[in-house]
From TrEMBL:
One of its GO terms (molecular function) is cytoskeletal anchor activity. This is INSC protein. It comes from the Eukaryota. Residues 4-48 form the Protein inscuteable homologue LGN-binding domain. GO terms for biological process: apical protein localization; asymmetric cell division; establishment of mitotic spindle orientation; regulation of asymmetric cell division. Residues 61-513 form the Protein inscuteable homologue C-terminal domain. GO terms for cellular component: apical cortex. It holds the Pfam family INSC_LBD. Signal peptide: none annotated. CDD domains: INSC_LBD (cd21966).
Length: 513
């Protein structure tokens, strides 16, 4: 389940209605409240929500049940039988409430679904009855033998619950995809895509279900119909979410999705929002963190057109978000083929990226600077890149990036700042093989800053990767400009083996009392 970390009191407030509903069911001995066919009962939670909200309610209830089952196993391990029984009663109530809620907003449950529901309810009742018998037994030996039976029933309940949730989510995905494929209505299609996107946000497992049910195929079908042009951004955003899993990538390959993305990016009649969301899909499927790369063969066939379109999008971006998506896609592409770097050089991408960095409205976060310096670092392996960097005043920009600091203290932003510092040092190290770049680096006082980053752990947020990159850059600059270092810096940071200098710098923050 996709969970947002929130304050515990806020979480309690959100769960309160579900929990009080559960307590009402306990008082009624877990007997569901009957509903007249022609009336809407105010006690049914789902009656006040839309279908998408109903699904969120179901997922929240499922999360509560899953958490309770885990806690039962923990209490059982400690032989806390009273707690085990009370929690079992609570799970029993939650399961019945979840099934009742789901059936109120879903009128087309399959026979298999009903059988699973009945099996789960029966197992929960059996579980509750068995734990009640355990409470009435004081003999330790008998309890020991009963404990293994309780564990077996708990395992069975968990398995039935998992199968039911899997079936429910599969059925919901199928229903939404049928709406997308069969409806000619713009409103219905938009609503179904929106619900599908919400479902995909619940995590990788949901994305796998959607992909297996043909979600990627259905969404690319939308992206190939002009009558749905206004839905392209929303559709592409959903595709980016689903393609984080291998099953989504396989489907993308089958429907020639990369060619479709290339066509969208190169079609100037599309809006900037559409181009940006297409760039987001490219960034997702080219992520260096993905272990599956079968789709990259077809990507290489369209790479020149895609890279050209992404550079143009960076150049013409009207906002920081658009630039971030386009530059992230370019950064990922430069990781898996050096041909991409050569194409970027031909397109004057270095000049365009450096110019964008001077516009604080466009490159306005450490995340954007992280993408830019990633591209520069990967391009710096090419000899021609050095002259482009010099002409665009890129050495000064790299120097400024060595000072990157988080203003909010947010962990993700802090990590991005570390990456910016590390990659700017790596880029300087690679480019400083060119005497002109090394001379510019000395001129902009890069050496004192690199020394500071090596010697002061707080300046680099105690990052070892930043330290190694700075030591490497410092050693390269020391070769090109040996007069820029004091003797103590040379003796400690340049002359020893890299590992010895690294150990010296990492021990500087230690205090012995």
């Amino acid at each position: 389940m996709h969970l947002i970390q929130v304050d515990s009191v806020q979480r309690w407030m959100e769960d309160l209605k579900l929990m009080t509903d559960c307590e009402c069911m306990c008082i009624l001995q877990s007997k569901p409240i009957s509903i007249e066919k022609d009336e809407q009962n105010e006690l049914i939670l789902s009656s006040q929500y839309s279908p998408c909200d109903n699904l969120q309610l179901l997922l929240k209830r499922a999360w509560i049940i899953s958490t309770e089952l885990t806690r039962i196993a923990q209490k059982l391990e400690k032989n806390r039988w009273q707690r085990v029984h009370s929690m079992t009663v609570r799970v029993n109530c939650h399961v019945r409430s979840m099934i009742n809620e789901y059936n109120t907003f879903t009128r087309s449950s399959s026979e298999g679904m009903h059988q699973l529901e009945k099996l789960l309810v029966d197992k929960c009742s059996e579980f509750t009855a068995f734990t009640e018998r355990c409470l009435q037994t004081e003999d330790e030996e008998i309890l020991k033998s009963m404990k293994s039976c309780v564990n077996e029933i708990l395992t069975t309940v968990a398995q039935c619950f998992g199968q039911l949730i899997e079936l429910v989510l599969t059925q919901e995905a199928q229903s939404l995809l049928r709406q997308i494929e069969l409806s000619g209505s713009l409103y219905i299609t938009e609503s179904a895509i929106s619900s599908l996107f919400s479902l995909a946000q619940e995590g990788a497992h949901l994305c796998r279900i959607i992909a297996k049910e043909g979600g990627v195929v259905a969404l690319f079908k939308i992206c190939r119909q002009d009558c749905f042009r206004c839905l392209y951004p929303q559709t592409l955003r959903t595709l980016a979410s689903i393609c984080c899993v291998e099953e989504g990538m396989h489907q993308l390959e089958k429907v020639d999705g990369i060619l479709c993305l290339s066509d969208i990016l190169t079609d100037t009649s599309h809006s900037e929002a559409t181009h940006a969301e297409a760039a987001a899909v490219i960034a997702q499927i080219t992520s260096p963190h993905l272990t599956f790369t079968q789709h990259l063969s077809s990507f290489l066939e369209n790479m020149e057109e895609i890279v050209t379109a992404l550079v143009k999008l960076c150049q013409e971006a009207s906002s920081g978000e658009v630039f971030l998506l386009a530059s992230a896609a370019l950064a990922n592409i430069t990781f898996f083929d050096t041909m991409a770097c050569e194409i970027l050089l031909q397109l004057n991408a270095v000049k365009i990226l450096l110019a964008a960095c001077s516009d604080k409205h466009i490159v306005d976060t450490p995340y954007s600077r992280d993408q830019v310096v990633t591209i520069l670092a990967n391009m710096s392996v090419l000899d021609q890149c050095a002259s482009e960097i010099i002409q665009g005043n890129g050495v000064q920009l790299l120097m400024e990036m060595l000072f990157e600091k988080s203003s909010s203290g947010n962990p993700a932003e802090v990590a991005a700042c570390e990456r910016v510092q590390q990659k700017s040092a790596v880029t300087l190290a690679r480019l400083s093989r060119d005497p002109e770049v090394a001379e510019a680096a000395v001129k902009f006082s890069c050496i004192p800053r690199l020394i500071k980053l090596c010697r002061s752990p707080t300046e680099r947020n105690n990052s070892d990767s930043v330290l190694v990159a700075c030591l490497a850059a410092l050693r390269r600059l020391a070769v090109m400009s040996p007069g820029g270092l004091e003797d103590s810096d040379f003796q400690q940071l340049v002359k020893p083996r890299l590992v010895d200098s690294f150990l010296l710098c990492t021990n500087m923050e230690e205090s012995f009392v």
